[in-house]
Amino acid sequence: MIITDVLCPFCGDLCDDIIVEVEGNKIIEVKEACETGMSKMMGHERIAAPMIRENGKLVKTTYETAITKAAEILTNSLRPLMYGWGSTTCEADKKGIELAEELGAIVDNTTSVCHAPSILALQDVGLPSCTLGQIKNRADLIIYWGSNQAEAHPRHMSKYTSFTKGFFTKEGRKGKYVMVFDIRKTTTAEVANEFVQILPGEDYRVLSALRAILAGAGDVVPFSVGGVPKGKLIEIVDRMKNSKFGVLFFGMGLTHSRGKPYNVANAISLVRDLNAHTKFAVIPMRGHYNVLGFNQVCTWSTGFAFAVDFARGQPWYNPGETSTVDVLNRGECDSALIVASDPAAHFPRKSVEHLARIPLIQIDPYASLTTELADVVLPAAIAGIEVEGTAYRMDGVPLRLRKLIEPVHLSDEEILSRILSKVREIRGD
Amino acid sequence: MKKIDVKLISGRSIAQGIHIEDKMSSKYCDIVAVCELNEKDMSKLGIRDDANVMIKSKVGQVVVRARTNNRNPPGIAFVPMGPWANAIIDSSTGGCGTPQFKGIEVEVTLTFDSISPIKELVGFT
User: Fold this and answer.
1) What are the pLDDT digits (tens) for A173-188?
2) CATH label, B3-120, candidates 3.30.200.20, 3.40.190.10, 3.90.950.10, 2.40.40.20
3) Chain B, 11-70: which have a CB under 8 Å from a chain A CB?
4) Which residues of chain A does B101 touch, with a Cβ-Cβ cutoff of 8 Å?
5) What are the tens digits of pLDDT across the range A278-297?
6) What is the 3-state secondary structure of A188-211?
7) Could you give the ipTM of this predicted complex?
8) A203-214 and A260-274 are packed helices; what angle lies between their axes, rounded to 10 degrees?
């Protein structure tokens, strides 16, 4: 059976034109996807069954036993942490937040270690943004700043920006000017019209210089800023002002380097300033396919996008205090539930050390480093392949993930729902 | 032993993305336990591709394989995001929740030690 218009559940581009061939409840061919998306959709080794750690070893058990054990751990904790949610559906996120409220837990998602600085910045200065569809149809100046999307979002340029033709961009690549600002000549920079090399940690200064020139205060800008000559900066501002529709995509180059939220606020402010001259938009390059979905669900259900602490009986948000890495650094949580994420691989070592000390529950389709630390392992169906649901593309457009084959495991939502019921049963609610 | 002081950048690579859900494999180690340096920095260390190097930061040290990548300017070491990079990244977040994964001052030296085993890096050997 051939299934068309399938969404790829890998990165924040949520490509919606994938063609999948299914035979006997197995995906045998994937067309149109990038290498990363294809690797995920073709499938690889899964966690076979629920497991509980006994005498230092994970031993197979039933869902019922593992879910009961998970509920007992969470109910007996004073300060449970619930982290992950980057690669699951909004429906699972909603259930997870309900469980966090029931437990008085801290609930946080992978935003915490990627675009948390962007959330802080947009709370400060807003986000003049647009959809990827508008960019495809209108943008003639495309800027990637600290974002190597040729490797992180491999189809971004062919589907939405440089190599695509739209209603007002009929010339395709010829009619577009693509600029990359980065500290190293990435694969994205190699296919751009212009690569602007910035010295490490100097993004904030370069953005400030561009804003000063744009504001007519170029006389205060020195001969070179962050490794970029003043003449080049003036040329860049002219190009930005003279574009019909510009867009600035930014990635971890801004959020992970010196200045973090201040870099992003400065980039957004540059875009805001440019709107006095032309139409300009900014979009954060979100990584996992539904990391933004959690931010949306968490915001409409708690008022905050990530790092929400329910210990007071109401949502409390204070990144630096309630964000996962900080909670782990202080050794504060006494249990953790990790859903659709692998913090053991992607957190700094010191933070992982505390995860290794506390009772840990993992819900995930795949074994990872976090599995090696887990005391309870609950294998899940793969959202977007075995389970349908809602996911938010990086530009904030919600799309419906499709079910392609029958699952062998429970969905994240079902597992969380059963844990919640069991927690209520233990508490006698 | 020759050493260089460089700034460490960690981030995504396409191969790292392909194997992100297959971390216990040797292929993942081959792809992620890598330090990419400009050829000038490789020359300063007197090494060729696939020599093992020790990267030291103020919070730790890790052994990975060196590779030439002239996309990096001299003075920059790129290590794909993952357990090896995270062994030397400071966990403090400066009050925003996110550690500084890029632009960390590190020292790189040639070593004859083996590549740090993944299990050792997250403390469960």
Assistant:
1) 999 999 999 999 999 9
2) 2.40.40.20
3) 11-14, 17-24, 59-60, 70
4) 113, 252, 256
5) 999 999 999 999 999 999 99
6) HHHCCCEEEECCCCCHHHHHHHHH
7) 0.91
8) 20
